[in-house]
Structures are given as structure tokens and as C-alpha cells.
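Before a colleague's protein record goes any further, I have to sign it off. My question to you is simply how this chain folds and whether the C-alpha cells agree. I do not need a full report, just your reasoning and any doubts. This is what I was given:
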Amino acid sequence: MTTSAPSLFEASAPRPLADRLRPDRIEDVVGQAHLLAADAPIGRMLASHQLVSHILWGPPGTGKTTIARLEAAHTDLHFEPVSAVFSGVVELRKVFEAARLRRQAGQGTLLFVDEIHRFNRAQQDAFLPVVEDGTVTLVGATTENPSFELNGALLSRCQVYVLNRLDAAALEELLVRAETEEGRGLALTDDARSALKAMADGDGRYLLNLAESVFAAASREALDTEGLMTLVQHRAPLYDKSQEGHYNLISALHKSLRGSDCDAALYWLARMLAGGEDPRYICRRLTRFAVEDIGLAEPQALPQSIAAWEAYERIGSPEGELALAQCVIYLATAPKSNAAYKAFGAAMRSAKGSGSLMPPKHILNAPTRLMKDLGYGSGYEYDHDAEAGFSGQNYFPDDLPRERFYRPVERGFEREITKRLDYWAKLRAEREARQ
């Protein structure tokens, strides 16, 4: 797994622009000052020449491999790269043995594991002893949330550092460096230059690959946005519908709906659909939102979400996605209440804590003579025969004090429900006063 020196012919071979612009100094890495500055975590480690094992977590093209290489160079460690895609436990054992021999000779090893989340749990366990005894300093790179993908035992031995998606300023700095390297400017209008950065979606490597395509076109006139789109294909948005991107975007949609931000909710809906999310999953989550965050403040929220789901099932994509957009607008603009959600949670806690209390006998049916003799159904008052259609009897177990679970808010239809509950509470209090 060690890298050999380039041959004479390899050294003279053409290299991609992204490779030619790979930084030689930690100060030249863009967009990650929160980790690499002198007073930042990695910056402090490099200053002390004492690296601890750590995981670099961030989107593609943000400098994970470059940072690891520069860390090794700065601390005089041997840089040993492996990829979880191509390596197994057998290859790792060879790497570990070479690191032990190197350590005996007085040199440490920085073991860089790209895509470390692709190792299964058993393979990840192989790192534990060599990290624990200092045979290697492990630097793992991952685009996935380490909390989901890495063993707890391995995580406990490593720091986790989060790399930022490159912002517009960092991407612009890379374009300037590319133009300096090429000795000419990109033949793009200002709008097309902005579109090029937007297409990169925070990925510096992808940006430089796009820029290389523009340089190769050698256009004499500056390309506008349409010309740029014709030259290069638009990148699919970063979204893994089975991993963290999936959870992040549905969380963003749910919280935008809860916050009654209709436009933001539509944006996150569009992001999920553009990323390939199953619209049926979105339908389920919108239905859940209707009962959890709107409830009886707007009783039509649930029927509307079910109707949107049924409309999508009947029409399909892409036309049916408009039904989801309409549902998102309805839910975002509806009055909000989680009173029913909280009431059910409180009732569940009470039910679990009160054991197997029997209902009061007066509300039990008595289909047999024995049950009648035992008092089942005795004293029950038929509410329709009572004044105002309300008897005010107790329906809780005899040994459980009355509890109030449902507390409607003063929004939407729940205002009307509050009036009804207050009226029945008044009648119940009058009944108790008479007894």
C-alpha cells in the first residue's frame, strides 16, 4: 500500500488541474480556517508536532486528503494512504506490520484511511490496538456522519473534526489560483462565473474540474450562463437518501413547516425531490406532521395530507409532486398546535404508571347475571338523557384521581374546543357541588 516514486515518464505526464493546485502548505488550504488556523484544533496540534488520531468529516472536495498529507509532512510522519473501498483486513495487517517496523526505526506513521465508513464493524475493530498503542496515528476521512457509521470504541479513541462545505469566497479563491496556474482568465461572464461556483455545490475538486473544461474549450468570447450549461453538465445535488442527507433534509422540511415558513418548506421539499427522495416517504412525513404539529388547530390538515398522498399515488411523478407542494403550503400556513401530541404522551405515561386499574363499574357492560349482581353498569347515566346532553359522571378508574391531559391552544379551531371543555368543566363542577 506504500506509494512508489514517480517514474521519469510519469513525472512528465499531464496532470489534472485539481492535482496541480493541491496545496503544499497548510496555510493554503481554503475554507477550513476553523480547524487549521494557529489557534484552531488542528493548527495547535501541528504547532506542537503532536498529532492525535482523528476523523475528518465533510463533503467531497473540501480538502480531507490534502489536510492529512500536510499533517504528515508537518510532523515528519510517514504518510500511508489506504482506501476502505480497495482494502481488507489482510492488507491492513501488512500496513500495521510495516508501521511497527518503521516505529522500531524511530519513525511514526500517519495512516490515512479514505472512506473509512465503508469498513464494516469488524474491520474497524482491527484499528483499535494499533491506535491504542501508538503504532499508527489514524486519520480517517468520511462523508458520512461518524456517529452512524463508526464503532463507538473507535470513535472514543479519535477526535472528530467537521470540515465546512466551501463557500463562494473559498471557491472564488480556487478559481483565481486556477487562472494564475493557466496564465489566463476564464472566458466567462460574471453571471456564468457565479453559475460555475453554484454548480460546484461546495466541492473544490469538482469546481477545478469544471474550470479545466472551460479552459480546454478555449473560447474566444466569454461564455454566458447558457453557454456554460451547454459546455458542462449540471451536477446532481449531493443527497444520500439512506444516510445523513436524508435525515438532515427531512428535519429541515419538518422544522420549516413547524415554523410556518412556507417558502423555506417548499425549498426543502424541492431539494429532497431533486435529490431522488421517494415521494411516498415525504407523504408519510407530511401526514405525521399534520397530526403532531397541527392537530385540531386545523382539523382539515390530516384530510389534506391524506388527499395529497392519494393524489400522488394516482397521478405519479412528476405531476403528482404538485400535490405535495400544495400540501406543504397548506400545512405551513395552518395554525399550529401540538396539544393532541402532548396529551397522548401524558396519557401514555399515566397508563404505564397506573398499572391495571379497572374502569369504574358504572361504565361497564353487564351481559351476564353474575356481572349485574356484582354491580356492573349500576348507576350509569345515559348522557343523551341528561340536561345539555352531559351527565358529568366520572370515567377514570376509581383509584386514579382525575387528570387533565389535553390542553388546547388559543389558535385555530382549538379555540372552539377550549370553549366546549370549559363549559363541560363548569357542568362537572356544579354536579360535584350538588353531591
Summary: The first helix runs from residue 8 to 12. The chain has a mean pLDDT of 88.
